[in-house]
From TrEMBL:
GO biological process: lipid transport
UniProt GO MF annotations: sterol binding
Organism: Salvelinus namaycush
Protein name (Swiss-Prot/TrEMBL): Oxysterol-binding protein
Pfam families: Oxysterol_BP (PF01237), PH (PF00169)
Subcellular location as annotated: Membrane
Family: Belongs to the OSBP family.
Amino acid sequence: MSEPKAPTPTPAGDTYKGWLFKWTNYIKGYQRRWFVLSNGLLSYYRTQAEMGHTCRGTINLATANIAVEDSCNFVISNGGAQTYHLKASSEVERQRWITALELAKAKAVRNQAESDDSGDECPTSPPTSGQGGGARNSNSEVQSTLRTLGSKVEDLSTCNDLIAKHGSALQRSLSELEGVRLGGDTDGKIRQVTERATLFRITSNAMINACRDFLALAQAHSKRWQKALHSERDQRIRLEETLEQLAKQHNHLERAFRGATVLPLSQSNPALNSKISGSAKGDASDEDDENEFFDAMEDPAGFITVPADPKYHRSGSNISGLSAEAGIDDQSLCDEQSLGSNPESPQSLDVEPVRKRRTKIPDKPNYSLNLWSIMKNCIGKELSKIPMPVNFNEPISMLQRLSEDLEYYELLDKAAKCQSSLEQLCYVAAFTVSSYSTTVHRTGKPFNPLLGETYELDRLRESGYRSLCEQVSHHPPAAAHHAISERGWTLRQEISLASKFRGKYLSIMPLGSIQCVFEKSNNHYSWKKVTTTVHNIIVGKLWIDQSGEIDVVNHRTGDCCHLKFAPYSYFSRDVARKVTGVVTDKEGKAHYVLSGTWDEKMEFSRVMQSNKGENGTEGKQKTVYQTLKAKELWRKNPLPEGAETMYYFSSLALTLNESEEGVAPTDSRRRPDQQLMEAGRWDEANAEKQRLEEKQRSVRREREREAQRAANLPEEGAEGVEVAEDGVHQDNYEAMWFERTEDVVTGESMHVYKGGYWEAKDHGNWDICPDIY
């Protein structure tokens, strides 16, 4: 009977079968048996026919030891209880079995370890049906696939070890063959090398088959995983949209509920109650379009607005009669149309531009730089004292940023034409908010001005105003700004920045005040700026937020507008970047309510009546204002096309660095590092920036030495040294175009324009200007 040929072992397969000779006893010796290797178990039968009913013995390879005795014999033992002495028909056949057994043993050991690890994590409760069951089945499928891939990887690792083992043996045989002399041993050595080469080829083929199986399995599941990933992403987007819609609906319902319950209309005004009952019959359905609910502020002086009595919506001819009845000041009831639209607004005038301004600048280069690598050493330091590369800048200076406050100068033009101081205050408050609209996407840092640096913005023939800024101090850094309009207003400010890096965010606190004076009414307003915060300094996308409170005060009449910039909160129900405010007279009586966002628009609504409502969320009583329909005061101009590649500059900002004839030699337009950055030559700009800063330091040291020499002189010279409270010498510098004075109205000390700049420009005489560039 001929012996059947055993199949070539496949290490990546699950089953291996073949004939082997097994030692039985000393009488019968080795007997031929049919062996089956499957799932880490080696079983044997007398014949193949017994496989279906009688198994003669089985040994678990996970705990077995495999040892080779000679060219054809090998032993499998599990520690003494079971020992199989086996013999193959040839050395090649023996090696095929050894390879298959080693692979099966490695897989059995791995499966046993995984079974032990997963035993502690088995759920004690049965799986539930429904969506949760589907997710659990999906997770189980993924885990099963990962285990299968892991098993294939382990097979590849085992085959790699076997190839290394047999490759070393083959190398040794080849080395021995080189040293063998021709003779009787030559044939034996050649046969040994041939057998080992055959073993190496078998193992290599097994490795190739295992790689092929792994690749096929990975490709089959890759498409399914990509499809599942896209499905999960689409589902997440749909879920986010649904949540956003639900949040908006919840916010709308809650606001309507608060407006309806905080001040019951049946108690506050019978006319409003009759209006609601009539609306059920369809008589007042159009009235709803004339009313609007404002969100309640969440500060201690919070308020809520509700629609005013319909009688206040009558024609303007009856409004004076109602003022006495409702106890409302005539001054606050000036023609409402003048607030919503001013026929004498500068926007309606035919203005012929003097020159065509540029609308584009070179695109921002895409240079990568790690902000955290620089900022981690600057935590707690003053921002103005940190040396920064231009990579974090935008190609304009802080003086030009101050000039950008005039982007919406027409609000002050309208305010100058108002007959009512309260109406005028609404426009001034809108102007204070509009100055922040350009910062929403502007995460770049403006250049710190050099001491003595100036910037002029002459729009007299185009927009009716001209503006001048000067850096009047370097330690601490402070800039003075003066703008005057031929349409009857003057704006002046002195701003010093206190900024701290807190690790996760950067806080910029502007110090100093802003003042606006109207020539016709002699109304004198003053206010301060809120805190600017730059978030996600370490990781994430940078974004800007404005937060704090502003009191815009009319020092002549005592009128005040209290504005609140709500900080962004992920959990807040309010819109982002929200601004709310109330305009009151000197008696504290509210006349207008302002609402909007600092990056989009501001609206106002006239207050017709106010009452004390119920307690708020913190037990504080809120004021309820009955108001007319809101009208728009200000709306942000759209950004120019392609602004995202031009530092998100507005139309005005794009023109700030444009060259002008006749400007002072200290003007920011002439600053070389700033011009190089705008042109995209950042490496040269960094080098030029360092040169300018070093030049400024050397000039400052020379100025300090002169001050020190003056301090050592007799009494008449000692007064020239200015010393701060902490004993540190301030900049011994006198501004060119500004002088420090005390304002007689506000009592504040600030730098005020002393004149001479525009006259010097007309004559082209800049002799007093220092060489700072």
